[in-house]
Amino acid sequence: MKLSFSSAYFASNFPVFLKSSVVTSLYRPVSSSSQSCLPTCLKPQVPLFLKPPIYSTALSDLKSWHDWAKSLATSIGSTFVESDNGPDSSLLCRELKWLMEDAVEDQSVLTQMGNVNNQTVIMRADVEELYSLWKQRIEDRRPFQYLVGCEHWKDLVLSVQDGVLIPRPETEHIIDLVADVLSKNEGLRQGVWADLGTGSGAIAIAIGRMLGKCGRVIATDFSPVAVAVAAYNVQRYCLQDVVQLKQGSWFEPLKNVEGKLAGLVSNPPYIPSKDITGLQAEVGRHEPRVALDGGINGMDDLFHLCNGAASMLKPGGFFAFETNGEQQCKHLVDYLENHTSGSFCGLKIEPDFAGIQRFVTGFRQ
Amino acid sequence: MSFNMLKRSWRKSLHFAEIQRSQLVCSSRFSSFLNKIVENPSGSRGDLVPSNWFWFASKYRHFSDSSSQVATLPSGYGFYRKNIPGCRSYLLPDINFCYGFLQGLAFSSRFRLLGSQAAMEPSTSDGLTVEGILANNWTVLDESENDWKSHASAIAQSIHLIKKRLQWKKLIVRLNMLSMELNKPDLWDDPVHAGKISREHGSLLGKMKEVKAFEQELLEHIDMIKLAREEDDADLESESLKALLNMRRNSKEKELEALLSGEQDSCSCFIEVQAGAGGIKRATIKVDGEHAFGYAKSEVGVHRLVRISPFDSNKRRHTSFAAVAVIPIMGDGSTRVQINESDLRIERFRSGGAGGQHANTTDSAVRIVHIPTGVTATCQNERSQHQNKASAMAVLQSRLDQLEMTRQAQMNAHHTQSLTDITWGSQIRSYVLHPYRMVKDLRTNYEVSDPDSVLEGDIDGFILSYLSASLDKDEE
């Protein structure tokens, strides 16, 4: 989640920001005391597959639920596809299988669904809850990832919950871009990186695992829920010493590393406000608007990030931002070339796996 | 025993595939499986048999076969797990045949075989050899009849069958060839080749040693019985008889193991099923477990189903086909084809539309094309692109390994026969539900008049009869 400075994004705000950073740059670099801003009251939800297997259900009841859920899924056909490019029934059936995998402790039960006997199944959720979850999936179009509380992203399994953007497969490519840069510049591997608007912490964790012994990632988010969930994910991958979480808007929590960042990455909200209402139901109805809505043309936060990048990155530092597509990419490159007084070099537009111009990357001069 | 496991695995596999993709497979029953993906409403056959469907066919380069899938069976559901000692690999081959001695060291003076001479036939103190026992044609009585000649005869027959199945004479020739290779001074100039040679040598030697030891044990027990009778030692006689009986029971298992002694038989495997008609739907199932490939290879070929289609409102009879391929997953690195990342084109599922934050889809199908060969692999069942890519890569690796093996086999006549068995074959079995009811294997003529049980997965008989027919017919 990110807070967008929706009005007067850099014309008035930015100089102020610069001024304050000058002051705070006198601070010592990243101290662990700054973690005190982590909310302690927020307890992230445990994903289904990590919940204790404390429920027990007759196999026949599980099968009844499964049959019901499957027929519900099948009845959808291509209705969702036609209405808003949502999932079709075959995809829903696959999700149903995954839901079973996460809910049932002993996977071998899944192969015995055909011959029902008196067997008891140990579960991580009771059948009543499964009914309710699947109903939410089909009737409310609640994203599958919120149902099971996790998303498989790259080789990570990340906890997600309502209020936290579900990481997208397109974003995986940011990690490839960073890996590429790291392989060519070992020095950056030992530096401090920042992931702004980290959400579930996906990018920060993936980068954290690629960095060297001295390398670190600071992940920020304005949303306390996101920070709590990201912290949980960081802990699950034992990266507490590598990835540091800070709550705050964009560069605000980074004042003490101004001009020192080796890398800066972000997947900020970039959907134009007018497009929000037409989004796929899973996205528009359930995911946090603050993580999606990028203002009138969708670029409020992207511009803010570009301006900040000039002052935050050290010379030779790398940045990669995800955008809405070709138009935003071109706009951004044009802005970086012509309105940042030559702060950047090596600007590039990179496509995602679907061939859409998705990322803008470059280096601080 | 093991066949039941295969049956269950097979059934589970299909059931698993069903969960993976409801449109492709709507029931765990093989019948429905065949039907659903290969139903051919026209009822004609001939041109619909995908005899030209090779797994490396370039015509499957379109992303349209996105229905291809890989299902992974957790290894826990695998086959009967048993290690055949003969399949151990010996890196430092021991040329000497060290026959096992029991307590009967008394007879060791008879064994003049302790050198490197493998050709000497072992015999009892009075010169009886295994061949001799066979020639005597002693009647084989029921196990409960405590008659040593009956036991000995049964065991000797088993040994004969085992040798036949191991292609004993070929094995000895091959072993000699490998020994010669191993003795070459420049062997280790090519470590990969050397490793391969020494592994094969070790494996063949292990098999041979095991049979030899079994023969030796038989002869020793016979010696013991004769000695016991001379000495009038009833305890020793009954003990030796018991030992013979144990051997006799054991030998049945060894016969079975000998059926699965092929180079790749112990591997896990992928089973691929593809529809004969219409679309290009294909399902790939991974089967983990000891001898998965050895058993599953029996199913390679085209399966034909004749019945009144439940999907035809006019209740007409339909003929449909499914082609099955089985690909071993090589355990050791020596046969693995090196894949260059730059030779790959990786295609991913596209939700269409703007993508990125606009779309939330759990569909993360990945398709990999190996550009130089046109071999492709697709996976869509895993939960991330990363996992789908890894699974698809595993399939691709196996397919390329298989391609490479075929290529090597064509250069090496020794293996050609065995390899034609594992590439796509022609029609192997028909399942007729109407107008009469019968499942018949066209290779062995093995038939069953209850198609339902077979379609439910009871294919043990077919596998066993195929394996024994294909090996036992070979003249030594």
From TrEMBL, chain A:
Keywords for the protein's UniProt record, in alphabetical order: Methyltransferase, S-adenosyl-L-methionine, Transferase
GO biological process: methylation
Any GO MF annotation of the entry: S-adenosylmethionine-dependent methyltransferase activity
Segments forming domain Methyltransferase small: 178-274
Alphabetical list of SUPFAM superfamilies matching this protein: S-adenosyl-L-methionine-dependent methyltransferases (SSF53335)
NCBIfam families the UniProt entry points to: hemK_fam
Protein name, UniProt field: Release factor glutamine methyltransferase
Species name: Quillaja saponaria
Lineage of source species: Eukaryota, Viridiplantae, Streptophyta, Embryophyta, Tracheophyta
TrEMBL record, chain B:
Family to which this protein belongs: Belongs to the prokaryotic/mitochondrial release factor family.
Keywords for the protein's UniProt record, in alphabetical order: Protein biosynthesis
Domain Peptide chain release factor: 226-299
Extent of the signal sequence: none
InterPro entries: PCRF (IPR005139), Pep_chain_release_fac_I (IPR000352), Pep_chain_release_fac_I_sf (IPR045853)
Name listed for the protein in its UniProt record: Peptide chain release factor
UniProt-listed SUPFAM superfamilies: Release factor (SSF75620)
Keyword check for Repeat: no
CC per GO annotation: cytoplasm
Molecular-function GO terms, alphabetical: translation release factor activity
Lineage: Eukaryota, Viridiplantae, Streptophyta, Embryophyta, Tracheophyta
Protein biosynthesis listed as a keyword: yes
